[in-house]
Amino acid sequence: MLRDGNEGMSTIPGLNQIQFEGFCWFIDQGLTEELYKFPKIEDTDQEVEFQLFVETYKLAEPLLKEKDVVYESLTYSSELYVSVGLIWKSSMEMQEQTILIGNITIMNSLGTFIVNGIYRISIPAPQYHIGEEDEN
């Protein structure tokens, strides 16, 4: 935040928009990309395979309201559910169900995150790729 003598506190122009766009990208695309990195798991005899079906993930509504997580010093989050399949290779039979992977901290209506009851913003670090040089 910037302080301007007589005008009090003001925000950096466009910061909320950048925050919202980044979080929406993560929910729409980034999360799927990360879940695709999860490998298939096979038993030692290679008879049974465990596989995530990431196209069908779901984020549940937060269990608590923003004001309650602040008051109770908790994190504003949503439960992440993913469909999984257990495949028996000998019969190609599959058992599918939806499981809870864990909780994901989510952005609130102000464009911030609430972690342990404290409002936080996320500032992404620049990404560098091997072989690239910083031009500055």
Q: Can you describe what's shown?
A:
The chain is 21% helix and 38% strand. It has 2 helices and 8 strands. The strands form 3 sheets. A 4-stranded antiparallel β-sheet has the order 3-4-5-6. Strands 1-2 form a two-stranded antiparallel ribbon. It is elongated. 4% of the residues are buried. The N terminus is likely disordered.
Write the topology of this structure.
Blueprint: E1 2-4, E2 8-10, H1 15-36, E3 41-42, E4 48-59, H2 66-71, E5 77-88, E6 93-105, E7 113-115, E8 118-120
Antiparallel strand pairs: 1-2, 3-4, 4-5, 5-6, 7-8
Give short descriptive properties of this protein.
2 helices; alpha+beta; disordered N terminus; four-stranded antiparallel beta sheet; 136 residues; two-stranded antiparallel sheet
Report Rg: 21 Å
Which blocks of ≥5 consecutive residues have pLDDT under 50? 1-6
Tally the helices: what do you get?
2
Q: Which strand order spans the largest sheet, edge to edge or round the barrel?
A: 3-4-5-6
Order of helices and strands: EEHEEHEEEE
N-to-C CA distance: 25 Å
What integer is the average pLDDT? 81
Main sheet summary: 4 strands, antiparallel
User: Which range does the strand content fall in?
Assistant: 35-45%
- Quaternary state, please? single chain
Helix- and strand-based class? alpha+beta
Number of strand elements: 8
Shape field: elongated
Q: Helix proportion of residues, in percent?
A: 10-25%
